[in-house]
Amino acid sequence: MNLELNAIASELVEDVVGDAEGLRIIEHDQPGDGTLIDFGVDAEGGLEAGCALASICMSGLADITVEPGLLDDIGWTYVQVVTDSPVAACLFSQYAGWQISVGKFFAMGSGPMRAVYAKEQLFDKLWYREEAEQVVGVLETPKLPGEEVFQYIAKHTNVEASDVVLCVAPTSSMAGNLQVVARSIETALHKLHEVGFDVNRIRSATGSAPLPPVAKNDLEGIGRTNDAILYGGRVTLWVNGDDESIAAIAQKVPSCSSPMYGQPFLSVFEAAGRDFYKIDPLLFSPAEIVFQNVDTGRVHVAGRVNNDVLKRSFGI
Fold it and tell me: Which residues neighbour 49 within 8 Å (Cβ) at sequence distance 6 or greater?
């Protein structure tokens, strides 16, 4: 099976390059070394750029919009995600599962290039990988990647460096901030996969999370974007099959199931010595999850939104 995720993402890249001025993004010259699109390092970016970046990250298999809502009793902006291809969009593409470490350069790699690299265990467990003539990735980083990064990715995806497309934005930019918050469904699916639920039973999904104020630096940006999902993310999944297996895992899914729940993420991160691997992986989940069983009509709800932590994190 080849869903051609990279081919779809490549078409989206062509579209954004064609509207670079309107999106306030920059295509940097990379002679012979692929395509580099800056969504927030030197470029200003914006909300539309963030939606476009999130769409590329999900290989065009989701609709990402900015919607009005409430944070407690305050009018607030939310990032809404809708998909009928949740596994492909979120796990095969959007999940930031590839650590790109080349010399002094480091970034978390997302996007469909991961499905060509396919060294993460989830690709073996879910029986998916693909070949591509051109690979597309999204990097969360405050630095523009150099020639050696393109060569590294090319080597690990079996393409030429000129066929590597990288879209880059730091978390402390408008576009980078938004694309991280567009991961509400992804965190739910990854958590479900980790606790042993058959994610192929998930037929459709929606997710929303409050868009944080853009942080003054990436460390604070990591804190705020994580809090947006952990304490404000709401996900609804349309699933098939029996209700017993859903009921058995539902309470394990939301972030409140973790003993580390309750503090702004930046406090948790500092207590862990700024080491992600010392943080309980079960914390990385949406605040609330709703399962709607399309076979039985039953609804299962778990978790809750925590406006108090959100307001502390967002500086309200």
Answer: 16, 23, 24, 25, 39, 40, 43, 174, 175
Residues belonging to the chain: 316
Q: Domains in the chain, please, with CATH?
A: 1-60+88-170 (3.10.340.11), 183-316 (3.30.1030.10)
* Dist. CA 65–CA 52, nearest whole Å: 10
Structure tokens at 211: 């868009």
The runs of H, that is alpha helices, within the chain are 5-18, 20-23, 47-57, 86, 113-117, 121-125, 147-157, 174-181, 184-194, 218-232, 244-249, 265-271, 307-314
- Cβ atoms within 10 Å of 133's Cβ, excluding its own: 10
Q: Are 62 and 83 in contact (CB under 8 A)?
A: yes
Q: In sequence order, which residues have a C-beta less than 8 Å from that of residue 85 and are 6 or more positions away? A: 61, 62
Q: Computed over its alpha carbons, how large is the radius of gyration of the chain?
A: 19
Per-residue pLDDT reduced to its tens digit, 229-264:
999 999 999 999 999 999 999 999 999 999 999 999
- Pick from 274, 259, 174: nearest CA to 221: 174
| 45/120 Cα distance (integer angstroms) | 31
Alpha-carbon distance of 38 to 172, in angstroms, equals 13
The torsion defined by the Cα of 279, 281, 284 and 285, in degrees rounded to 10, comes to -150
Q: Are 86 and 238 in contact (CB under 8 A)?
A: no
- Average pLDDT for residues 275-281, to the nearest whole number? 84
Orientation of helix 307-314 relative to helix 218-232, angle to 10°: 170
Total-model pTM: 0.96
Count Cα neighbours of 262 within 13 Å in the Cβ-side half-sphere: 4
